[in-house]
Amino acid sequence: MSKHNRLTFFIFLALVIGVGLGYYLNVKSFSTYNDNITNAENRIKALDGQILKIKDTTAVAYTSLVAEKKVEAGVRAENERIREKKLEPLTLLSDIFLRLIKMIVAPLVFTTLVVGVAKVGDIKAVGRIGGKTMLWFLSASLLSLVLGMIMVNIFKPGLAMNLPLPPDNIDTGIEKAALSVKDFISHIVPKSMTEAMATNEILQIVVFSLFFGVATAAIGEKGKIVIEFFDSVAHIILKVTGYVMNFAPFAVFGAMAAIVAKQGLGVLSTYALFIGEFYFSMMLLWAVLIFIGFLILKGRVFNLMSRMKEPVMLAFSTASSEAAFPKTMMQLERFGCKDKIVSFVLPLGYSFNLDGSMLYMTFASLFIAQSYGIHLSFDQQITMLLILMLTSKGIAGVPRASLVVIAGTIATFNIPEAGLALLIGIDPLLDMGRSATNVVGNSLATAVVSKWEGALTGPLEETNEVLINN
Fold first, then answer.
1. Structural element, H or E, at residue 199
2. Phi and psi at residue 337, in whole multiples of 5°?
3. Which among 381, 363, 383 is positioned nearest to 427, based on CA atoms?
4. CB of 81 within 8 A of CB of 73?
5. 248 and 97 in contact (C-beta within 8 Å)?
6. Cα 113 from chain centroid?
7. Buried b vs exposed e over 152-187: b needs ≥16 C-beta within 10 Å?
């Protein structure tokens, strides 16, 4: 078994063992805490309903109910704290791995993108590649949003499931994302390169790298020293990536065991319809994207998808497409994509081409509307789709980014924000599928742009070297 296949095998094995251990812990060790948390949440919902009925906030009954709610909230918080404390040995495994990945991603994007842009050398060529890249990104995002809208209208899970609605005054803990051009621009344009590196603001790093790379090429002979230096640094970082990836199976094991221990398999039965229909829609999106890729890449698209098994599995099990970034980059170069294209398209994709998240946003937003019996006309749904298209760009790295965008969007259509409570419990399970889909979408985007640029060569042989120069 090759080193590549061994790692894939161990990641899959870790995923299976993690699910098994998580189920055992959920049943044997965490059932008391989970039951206490569930009971407290149900009691809080009931109290919220009673509180809403009392108009006089100075009444003794109102004060009593608020005090009781505070006690139940304390019970929930204490049980969550104990549960998280007991899960620390497992969550620590995935936390360490994700921190190591974050340590790598920023310098990896910077060095490879500077080298790639400097090798292109011509600012017109950079603009041409950027234009083709954004054409794919916008088309894929629109496709994902439209597919989500179509599928949720066909399945109507909000009506079919008939879930009990949460009280209007429930605190979801999700802040709305306002549609602000100023915020969007400030998120793109860095005020400090060191700050962007420290906070892993990938889009800001990309902007600085583009300027730096073009300037490096523009100064001619002196710039070659810088290019060689950054090329060497990129090799070193990717060598470090190889070391870090050996820890991936442990991270997958810890992440899966922790999520199943907390969520259990019972949530699958309660939300089986929604989860099943969402994942079916996501598989359909994969099929459509791969078919479009086939029209452009021909039979090589299947070789690409075969190479993406490991990054996709890693993104799925850790619920982080960022965790798969270095491995995706390596596999794309081995597939035959030029490093200058990979280092340009892939980082941009992490902010502008989140296909899984796009599909989820329309699917989830309309699901909440259906649950509340709110009918949105075709025109309103198209408007919602366009708003999501704008507000979702450039929010990669924001915690619960999809839910944040949904919270701001549904408020525009007078859909109760409390409806997010219907999804918060299963969001980690859905995030796994979204992350995997984002990897598929970005790998296809990179391969297609490489093809359009005539920069797609034959597959490279597997070697211990993770980055090969053109």
1. none
2. -75, 135
3. 363
4. no
5. yes
6. 22
7. beebebbeebebebbbeebebebebbeeeeeeeeeb
Q: Which residues pair with residue 456 across a beta bridge?
A: 337
Tokens for 279, please give them: 């994942």
Q: How many CB atoms lie within 10 A of CB 246?
A: 11
Q: Would you say the C-alpha torsion 298, 300, 303, 309 has a positive or negative sign? A: negative
Give the rounded distance of the alpha carbon of 125 from its chain centre.
Answer: 30
Q: Which residue has the tokens 């949440």?
A: 41
Q: How far lies 190's CA from each of 35, 133, 150, 213, 214, in Å?
A: 46, 21, 38, 16, 17
Distance between CA atoms of residues 62 and 234, nearest Å: 63
Whether 170 and 418 have beta carbons less than 8 Å apart is answered as yes
Q: How far is it, in rounded angstroms, from Cα 208 to Cα 114?
A: 9
Around Cβ 68, how many Cβ atoms within 10 Å? 16
User: For residues 134 and 238, what is the distance between their CA atoms, to the nearest angstrom?
Assistant: 27
Report the chain's mean pLDDT, rounded to a whole number.
85
Residue range 311-369, pLDDT digits in tens: 999 999 888 888 888 899 989 999 999 888 888 888 888 778 889 989 999 999 999 99
Distance from C-alpha of 227 to C-alpha of 118, rounded to nearest angstrom: 7
pLDDT for 467:
42
Query: How far apart are the C-alpha atoms of 81 and 78, rounded to whole Å?
Result: 5
| pLDDT tens-digit readout, 57-78 | 888 888 898 899 899 989 989 9
